[in-house]
Amino acid sequence: MKKKINIGMIGTKFMGKAHSHALRDVSMFFDLDVEPVMKTLCGTSPETESIAKKYGWEKWTTDWREVIEDPEIHAIAVLTPGFLHKEMAVAAAEKGKHIICEKPLANSLEDAKEMFEAVQKIGVIHMTNFNYRRVPAVNLAKKLVDEGRLGEIYHFRAVYQQDWVLDADWVWRFDKKQAGSGSMSDKGSHIIDLARFLVGEITEVVADSKIFFKEKAVPGKNETRPVTTDDACMFITRFENGAMGLFETSRISAGHKNFLSFEINGSKGSLIFNLERLNELDIYLKDEDPSAQGFRNIIVTDPLHTYIDKMWPAGHIIGWEHTFIFQYYEFLKGIAENKNPSPSFEDGVKTQAVIEAALKSVSERNWIKVARDL
Amino acid sequence: MKKKINIGMIGTKFMGKAHSHALRDVSMFFDLDVEPVMKTLCGTSPETESIAKKYGWEKWTTDWREVIEDPEIHAIAVLTPGFLHKEMAVAAAEKGKHIICEKPLANSLEDAKEMFEAVQKIGVIHMTNFNYRRVPAVNLAKKLVDEGRLGEIYHFRAVYQQDWVLDADWVWRFDKKQAGSGSMSDKGSHIIDLARFLVGEITEVVADSKIFFKEKAVPGKNETRPVTTDDACMFITRFENGAMGLFETSRISAGHKNFLSFEINGSKGSLIFNLERLNELDIYLKDEDPSAQGFRNIIVTDPLHTYIDKMWPAGHIIGWEHTFIFQYYEFLKGIAENKNPSPSFEDGVKTQAVIEAALKSVSERNWIKVARDL
Amino acid sequence: MKKKINIGMIGTKFMGKAHSHALRDVSMFFDLDVEPVMKTLCGTSPETESIAKKYGWEKWTTDWREVIEDPEIHAIAVLTPGFLHKEMAVAAAEKGKHIICEKPLANSLEDAKEMFEAVQKIGVIHMTNFNYRRVPAVNLAKKLVDEGRLGEIYHFRAVYQQDWVLDADWVWRFDKKQAGSGSMSDKGSHIIDLARFLVGEITEVVADSKIFFKEKAVPGKNETRPVTTDDACMFITRFENGAMGLFETSRISAGHKNFLSFEINGSKGSLIFNLERLNELDIYLKDEDPSAQGFRNIIVTDPLHTYIDKMWPAGHIIGWEHTFIFQYYEFLKGIAENKNPSPSFEDGVKTQAVIEAALKSVSERNWIKVARDL
Amino acid sequence: MKKKINIGMIGTKFMGKAHSHALRDVSMFFDLDVEPVMKTLCGTSPETESIAKKYGWEKWTTDWREVIEDPEIHAIAVLTPGFLHKEMAVAAAEKGKHIICEKPLANSLEDAKEMFEAVQKIGVIHMTNFNYRRVPAVNLAKKLVDEGRLGEIYHFRAVYQQDWVLDADWVWRFDKKQAGSGSMSDKGSHIIDLARFLVGEITEVVADSKIFFKEKAVPGKNETRPVTTDDACMFITRFENGAMGLFETSRISAGHKNFLSFEINGSKGSLIFNLERLNELDIYLKDEDPSAQGFRNIIVTDPLHTYIDKMWPAGHIIGWEHTFIFQYYEFLKGIAENKNPSPSFEDGVKTQAVIEAALKSVSERNWIKVARDL
């Protein structure tokens, strides 16, 4: 009989759906030593009950403290806007719950550090949900880099472009107090984490950002509200290992819905990834037959590729949501083996340090060193 | 309280997994007027019990008749090799069960017709699982064709290429008795169904096929067994509406894992689809600004696109398996509304008629008219 | 002092321009042992004089016999509609001129054979201008096939799609008497030649074709004229070496301007080419690291690639017209070394034999063996 | 009788070949009111004579002053390393010659300004050879931007990546004195000019650059020489019109041979270009049918597109070198009409101002304003 891990989840919207789905599916695909139980879903809207039922949760509540204080609950998923993460995560840690928290880990480096300290002190399992580490093609990229197939790394460049702001009405993401920053933290945290995962630590950054849409209409009201978070950011970095980095985040890039793309160039080869074609990886290896060199397009759906032996035969592509299934597999395995998986809260802190340096660089208009004494 | 639909499923391998997953997820994404219940899974292997448990079935058995005769079961999924379909489906129909059956519907036109007659006589809901009709991009293609955006249709061409036979040992798919034919029925049935779905009925066909690998090693034994099913087929067709068709199926096309691609050309435009990038559709419309004409690559993940409002925000791609979820949604809706969805057994029969004509064309080396008096 | 080769050219339109340009440029890029001289251009239009001057010809005429009888002329380019090829080429051969003739070599197999006999009897150098043999990427494909990198060849499939007929008024290409056939000979001759070049001889064919536009408006007149040449053809072939072939030609494929694409699958790999991206070749080789297999996109602009050492540095792409420059290089080298280059008139004849079999297959609605006793 | 324009060209290597070819071809494709004459080629190598003959020049010399002082010469092409541009161009201007000069215009802003003053004082026609302004797809991009099809411009991002430095021995381009800077001026000047052409003036820049290969082997000698020019640069800019810019140049990006790519995002649409597929432009327009929106791939080979009516029919792609033919068409038309074409020396100066600001930003590690009082 497997040990049951009762889960409480705070958040019912887009992320609540993605996380619920992952929990629903994870034990069908993977052999786990524990059995996840979808215990309690917590939301603020009146539909919380019907959502909980639809997604397969046993119970529901609108009071997040109730979930955290429930002695039956072993693990908590924190999926709320960033400004709420710290309070919830620290409270959950103090109650001895394992935690998976959405990214960015917090709205400030200070908050993020406090969260990390809390989980460390109590010794619970903790993850920051940088789910793109779980894309099989990204895993293949990591493997190739780690094996030295690209040689010494020279360049990392990444963009994360969306266009929803162009036609959007006012939402909480436009409010600095709730969201921390705009595309910088929302989109930037993903590509900074990927840079750290694939290349290494970032030491310095210079950045620019801009709010193109100064205000947005409030839906249903005859008024506008000011936008205090950036629409777009560009930043240049230096990595500890000598590589150069180039980053852009934008929520006003017409035609791009969820275009996260990165390229790495090294002394022996290059690779290119694009989230809208997340089953693929393009790689170039210098040591090929010179008359037949080129970027090769790998369809990363072979049983040899990470997680894919649990999925479908080669050529049967997976969807975006599978990254959450894989993340929960790692989280539950971490709980079962009492060994903290990555990306941890520490990863969340380190990414936050880069964001904080970038934001400071924007206001000071200068290169800023990334805080390292975390 | 929603009416429960208890499901029995025969088959536990690749298809058993895909169908089980679809049942597990369908009511999370869709609002149905009935509630599907994963009642009994039936398989032949000793792992049937553990598979049933893992996938979320209440019961399991190794005797398919038991499932069909169980009065609690309302609907049956038939996922076995083709030569078993008829017996199972006819028996299920006679017991008044609704049926979803894997493609090709049968190994012969005669068997397929018998199955269609059985479900018609009893009046149960019936579907042939041509799941690629459920790809949102294919639905968009259908919509554009039906709206006349491509004008009069001139050409349909499709390939379905895989390469697993190149390195495979002997499996049941190489045996004509079990599989009916090779790539012609296994892969061809999918693209013939798409041709019928998107363009219309096929009236005549001329075909060629070949067995390149005459025998294959039997795993674990020091012997080979003859291959009696085709590795590859090519066929030209005429459509009732005057269009010309060109088809190819191959299981020996190196580098193609699951490459189903089709192109349609009409008097006003063209469109191109590729299953390995199933979230995309390329379309060309003649009535554009002449200096800016070109094939546009639509990422078919907008809430406007079929089924997508139930999935994720734009740019968050879905996987191959979602086509099964959407198929079960249609199947269950059909049961709830007592209205037969497509693709039905009739579609299975009509596709079988084309396959039968193509096989006859190969042996007679001549154009063959497709049987129409079904 | 290099020997001068005085050239006479019959044709001033699209092909006259492409061939003139090639002659103008060939000795700038290549080191030849002979010096081509643009002697006389022959056309039927009143602009022939001004065209000749603009393109760099010393003389001009409207009487093609004058060119052929000019004792100063050593070589003739025949660029007229197909029905005129035989008379001109045979006359030129009898006067001892070397000949490069546009494709298809003639409007009938019989005419083509007569032309080949004429050049053989006199012993002049002869070429059929299948210029796509000269694309560096096609040369790389040929090299890979010949080296056995793809192993045994199983499949060849090619399409040649254009869309100009959709909006065209009546032109001579719609008249069977002048053009021989429609897309079959105009477009089909190119892909049949490529099939022969890359895979080998075709032994049997079954084909279908159709005239979708039964008549076309005569420009400037209030009348229409019947169309007697096919808009589109589809044919299946068998190759001498056991490979299967699939071909399509269409001049009514909306969105395709000059889309000649072919794919070859063999036991060890595959390759894909597309004329609209003629600087590229996609190849797949089975013997790669299994976790990093995929189609690689080679930009065929490296000095290692055929002809490219005479062009520009890697990454600086060439245009469609360069294939003509390379063809003239081969033609002039053939003259200089008195060694007949390929594709010769014999290649023109063999391609014509396939076209003739395909046309017969269309009218007899049956498989037709390709004539081999040429 | 057309007026003859006698040309003198200084430079015989890669650029000498590209410019010679353009002169050889320009009057075949275009109707000019003047007749260019390939008068004198000047080079430093012993092969200058044979190169001049091969390329079609009447005379040759190894003394550049001779060309500039030749009273028969009307126009000069300056194709030497950057440090020689000023002396040659100023001398040519003083002799009243029209000048086309390779990019970057000079190795310093000061030199570039001096050159611009010289041509202005005398009143000769002057061009900086930013040939990528002449790509038809870039012209289409310009047209779409100017017509407001993309709306207000938010982002411009460009990379220019090559990889030749990875395996190169020491060449003059590694010497700051001769080359000015590395990838910044050599590659950066092209993308800065395109940014100015398409979006507008750049006002501020922050940059980083790095020399990864500190020294390179001297060919034929048992020694190395230090590298004093950057291998790669990254810079962020602000545009006068409020747009944000992101740039990267690298000569160590494995797999990229001549990959110049840019993307522009505006309030109404986006466009993407890539020099390795220079016949194509991808555009996205927001005001399309919402269910069929996507990036469309325009093959920019229609007679409607700039220069293409002088080339080949739709779908017949042009090569990299055609940009030089088009540039000479503009240069000669400028001379014929006595109207200075763009990109002029002024454009060369303005691009140099951005480079100078970027170089200063690298050394001062700060944002630098681009000099505007030119």
Key phrases:
homotetramer; 374 residues; alpha/beta; Rossmann fold; Dihydrodipicolinate Reductase, domain 2; 2 domains; six-stranded parallel β-sheet; 11 helices; 17 strands; 26% strand; globular
Give an overview of the whole structure.
Four copies of one chain form a homotetramer. Chain A is an alpha/beta fold and 374 residues long. Chain A is built from eleven helices and 17 strands. A nine-stranded mixed beta sheet of chain A has the order 16-15-14-13-7-12-11-8-17. A six-stranded parallel beta sheet of chain A has the order 3-2-1-4-5-6, sandwiched between helices. A two-stranded antiparallel sheet of chain A has the order 9-10. Chain A is globular. The two termini of chain A are 41 Å apart. Chains in contact: A-B, A-C, A-D, B-C, B-D, C-D. Chains B and C meet through β7, β8, β11 and β12 of B and β7, β8, β11 and β12 of C.
Describe, in short, the structure shown.
Chain A is α/β, with parallel strands linked by helices.
Strands, helices and their partners?
4 copies of one chain form a homotetramer.
Chain A: E1 3-10, H1 14-29, E2 34-42, H2 48-55, E3 59-61, H3 64-69, E4 75-78, H4 85-94, E5 98-101, H5 109-122, E6 126-128, H6 136-146, E7 153-161, H7 176-179, H8 183-186, H9 188-198, E8 202-210, E9 215-217, E10 224-226, E11 232-239, E12 244-250, E13 259-266, E14 269-274, E15 280-285, E16 295-299, H10 322-337, H11 345-364, E17 368-369
Parallel strand pairs in A: 1-2, 1-4, 2-3, 4-5, 5-6, 7-12
Antiparallel strand pairs in A: 7-13, 8-11, 8-17, 9-10, 11-12, 13-14, 14-15, 15-16
Helix pairs in contact in A: 1-10, 4-5, 5-11, 9-11
